[in-house]
Amino acid sequence: MSNNTAVVVGGGIGGLAAAIGLRLVGWNVTVVERAAVLDDAGAGISLHANGMRALATLNVAEAVEATSRRQYTGGTRTPDGRRLAMMDGAALERELGTPIVGIPRADLHRILRAAVPPEHLVIGSEVTEVTDGKDKARVTYDGTTLEADLVVAADGINSKVRRRLFPSHPGPVYAGSTVLRAITDRPIEGLADDFALTWGHGAEFGHIGFPDGRAEWHATLNAPAGLRYRDPLDEMRRRFARWHDPIPALLAATRPEDVLHHDVNELVTPIPSFAVGRIALLGDAAHAMTPHLGQGACQALEDAVTLTAALAATTASSSATKTTIATALTRYDAARRPRTLTVARDARRAGRMGQQLTNPIAVGLRNAAIRLTPPGAMVRTVLKHADWTAPRITPTPSAA
């Protein structure tokens, strides 16, 4: 390892990916996570080609693929089961050379966690102070202060580091939707679609299949912020009782205690920069977006790899290629801010034209437009966000 040191604040998907990447290029990294158990909360996740390419750069894509189910079949339907659009995952894989996969978030987190030595993980400790100095940054937690050449703020949508750096920023706002989700506790018989969405009026139901036959489902609803149900699963069974198969079967195969319920919040107002001094922000701390394109985690993975590539030059052996941390973070910000702004804006629009639409005439017009859209155009829509090329990273000899 080099003498360069980094502290990653937050041990979620983006934070762990950043730690893996920085270790690959020779940095000494410590991850500080406030949760007492390092296990990413959530149900299931789809990883598009861009996310898988980022994971391949971090040398963990093979393990992820072995634990996931490739998404070839499915699409979008109406509540009575009529097809609006077919998913052609095989065409996307041919175009991109990388499949879309579905995986439980806990499995993805476990794979990333295994790539960081336990002695570099500080669990159950909340960071209370982050300061940026000319020569070093400092991170304080539980009465301990670490000095580092770099701090990576990966502390989520309610990032304390972001608030400290940009105290006048309005922070996250409610996006108008709330989401309930769970993983079934047993395999679903005859689950034909690998991935599916159903759009009603102000409501969406989707599922992701897993290799063992179980599935993740999510229900996204227009609702006032903070709305909660006395019995969430019973409410979902009632709400979606007349929707097409396999929706009732997915809900029937779910235990009440497994249902998660979160409001959808996003950073509508962009932050001025993803880097301030020796501090870099990534993932939801930098650009929290709505889930309507399934790109949140993929963008965090892109952040981690792009940050790694920019900082690799700070450990270069040749003075001709070596760069400063400040220059590296400027490059990172320039590469990531425009792309994530575009993806976040498109996700917001997708929600407004998809799940959040309630006017019956507008819903009918949207459905007709989707049915008339050629399959090639649908593929190009996905490619707009998924066709990302990861920067090349050369691991240091010690990391290899």
Characterise this structure.
This protein is 35% helix and 24% strand. The chain is an alpha/beta fold and 400 residues long. It has a domain at 5-70 and 99-172 and 267-355: FAD/NAD(P)-binding domain (3-Layer(bba) Sandwich). Strands 6-5-14-15-16-13-17 form a 7-stranded mixed beta sheet. A 6-stranded mixed beta sheet has the order 8-2-1-12-19-18. A 3-stranded antiparallel beta sheet has the order 3-7-4. α1 links the parallel β1 and β2. α1 packs parallel to α10.
How many runs of DSSP E, i.e. beta strands?
19
Strand content: 15-25%
Question: Any idea what the radius of gyration is?
Answer: 21 Å
Proportion of helical residues:
25-40%
Q: Give the termini separation.
A: 11 Å
Shape category: globular
Helical/strand content category: alpha/beta
According to CATH, the fold-level topology of the domain at 5-70 and 99-172 and 267-355 is FAD/NAD(P)-binding domain
State the fourth-level CATH superfamily of the domain at 5-70 and 99-172 and 267-355: FAD/NAD(P)-binding domain
- What is the CATH top level name of the domain at 5-70 and 99-172 and 267-355? Alpha Beta
Question: How many helical stretches?
Answer: 13
- What is the residue-averaged pLDDT? 94
Q: In order across it, which strands form the biggest sheet?
A: 6-5-14-15-16-13-17
Name of the CATH architecture of the domain at 5-70 and 99-172 and 267-355: 3-Layer(bba) Sandwich
Low-pLDDT regions: none
